[in-house]
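@channel anyone free to eyeball this complex?
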Amino acid sequence: MGRTTQRQDLKEERRREILEAALHVFAKRGFDKATVDEVAERAGISKGAIYLYYKNKDALFFSLFEQKMDEAREPITEAMRSATSLPDLVRRVVTAQLEFLQSNQEFFRIFSSEQARFDLDFQSDFRRLLRRRFNAYISELGKAIGRFVGPGEKTLSRDLALSLIGMMNTHTTDWIINHRSEPLTAKIDLIVSLFLHGVETFAAEDRALSA
Amino acid sequence: MGRTTQRQDLKEERRREILEAALHVFAKRGFDKATVDEVAERAGISKGAIYLYYKNKDALFFSLFEQKMDEAREPITEAMRSATSLPDLVRRVVTAQLEFLQSNQEFFRIFSSEQARFDLDFQSDFRRLLRRRFNAYISELGKAIGRFVGPGEKTLSRDLALSLIGMMNTHTTDWIINHRSEPLTAKIDLIVSLFLHGVETFAAEDRALSA
Amino acid sequence: MGRTTQRQDLKEERRREILEAALHVFAKRGFDKATVDEVAERAGISKGAIYLYYKNKDALFFSLFEQKMDEAREPITEAMRSATSLPDLVRRVVTAQLEFLQSNQEFFRIFSSEQARFDLDFQSDFRRLLRRRFNAYISELGKAIGRFVGPGEKTLSRDLALSLIGMMNTHTTDWIINHRSEPLTAKIDLIVSLFLHGVETFAAEDRALSA
Amino acid sequence: MGRTTQRQDLKEERRREILEAALHVFAKRGFDKATVDEVAERAGISKGAIYLYYKNKDALFFSLFEQKMDEAREPITEAMRSATSLPDLVRRVVTAQLEFLQSNQEFFRIFSSEQARFDLDFQSDFRRLLRRRFNAYISELGKAIGRFVGPGEKTLSRDLALSLIGMMNTHTTDWIINHRSEPLTAKIDLIVSLFLHGVETFAAEDRALSA
DNA sequence: AATGAATGAGGATTCATTCAT
DNA sequence: TATGAATGAATCCTCATTCAT
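replying in thread with the prediction:
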């Protein structure tokens, strides 16, 4: 391995460390309250060093966001690709996403607190990009659902995707803020069933049980 | 009406005006980027006057939150109380909540961006309170659902409540950040049906249609 | 005098004080080395207060520049207006300018150190404005000279103006950096004579003297 | 040539390269805004290497100044030495200086922006030295003029030297900041004539022309 | 000799909060 | 009550200089 490559690796490693530190700090404080100083301290380097790796606080934040969204997308995309039926699709996607969120609750905190402001300006076009990404994800899931629900039902498919994602998100929020001890993935069945058959499933079961 | 009461009323009126201004500014900028100056300007009073009515920026924010959550609760609680069946309950609650959010998207932005940090400290106990409120709302809806779904299914009912709320939230987010022109309430039917019968409803309809 | 007017006056007074402080600090340190802190300290106010009166350091500098150039222009313009002959014009202008510089050597330091960079960008268009002002002054003096030297000789007149100003500037520089005890205005005769009749005047006088 | 000498030469060569780079950067940005990084980049070496050749940024700046002043002095001194009459002296000096400035406008920018602060402290004694140099140049030219104007007229000669230099400087400034396309040396005749015979020369010519 | 990563002091700017009027 | 000028702590970012390699 050449010297240049080694150096490159070290640089990559350092970027990762900073991102890791940034993840915690941004999750704990939110973008605005987070200070570069705290990120540096957590990364065990000096404040100035941050700027050797990231142009500024925005860039650091954006980089973090991108990396995590990429990380999340892979298994979810894979889930969509390999699905053979609607139930199969839904189960795979919910599993993939909840598993990701379970091990990335800090990212979820960040994402969640930015989400409702994706249409507001944030240093020119940072948020625009996030919104695009968000919409792309919804569309992708919408299309996947559409394949089973009906070919021309674009709006409906999208709405269903939104709904499914919404359920997952609120359960994640609940799991995080109430420090649930059971794994987030324990909610997979519930969400899948509800999405597929509605509350009736549970009501039916219940009736059967109490009968 | 005594002089004191009149004064009291004036004070209340002023507090309302400030809250109104704060709502817009906090929604547009987020808590941290919002400045007391901008709130004052929007309220048409001086910066110093804000401090006559609210101890500090945090208190102002908190007060805003409380007021809006109260405002939201009323019609939703009413919906729960008067519901005669599960479908009826769901439709009433979804309608009430989406109607509220439709005319309070700014509050939703704020709420949404704080939500995922309700368990973290925020100037002593502000967030603790928000979390309590949030949980109270979920529980309330959970209980209402439980009345129809099954008496002892506490966890299930809560989970269903979470799910329903999640769907509404994501649709609201989508409606806000993508500046949808149709009213948010246009999603009522979709959400209600999905929650009650699951995706099958739509698939069935679709099949019928294409048959 | 109304309260508003009084406040306005106080504000004007404060602006003047800041400008006065800035003049000294910028002259001593140059634009870049000067700190807002030092200006504030010298003005006897807090750092933050500077920003109540000037948008930023650039604006403060620019304001200082403008004010001083306006101050300088008045008597010089008047000199040009009232001149009846070339010798009269030259004497009046040189007198006016040297008198101004004599009591504004700090401004001269600032001006002088910026002058040769008027074509370089400085926060977009600050320097552009300075250059325009500088050229306007040269043109004005050029036109005044042109009235006596020859009507169509635009370039020549401008060049003569440049030359005259150059002489004054170097004498001012010399007077400042070598801390001459005699007044700067002691050089009026020399400059006027040299400009009007060239070095011959002195050579002639000298010959006569030594004869 | 010994190994040591070779090494010495290499070192000298490297110092020259750095100085060359520094010249551009300092001229473009000014001393304070210029960064060692940019100098290094332009010199094609690493930032750290700069410090192998120059103690610090100040030393680099000083060295640059010295070198350029030496460079300028040579032809001007030669011009003074070989002059046979006042007109000859003036023409030679003006030609030499304008030629130098024409190919060293960047140095002029730097010099010009420091000039008016030669009497102020700058990292102990840097400016003291510059002032000495400046005065030495004036004196030298003053003496040369004195040889033709009159032996005992020290002050007068110095003042004439200052005047002549002043004219050249302003024309150079004008040429630089207004990006004149004609060469700076095109102003030689004007300056020489004006210095020798005063504005009358031009007025006379003009009158003759219009007669 | 040379590199360039790392440091940390320093500076511009913002803004919650106070307080004299 | 109301104002808005003033404060100064806090924060982002830059960059000269050092130093391990």
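from a first look: The first helix of chain B runs from residue 3 to 29.
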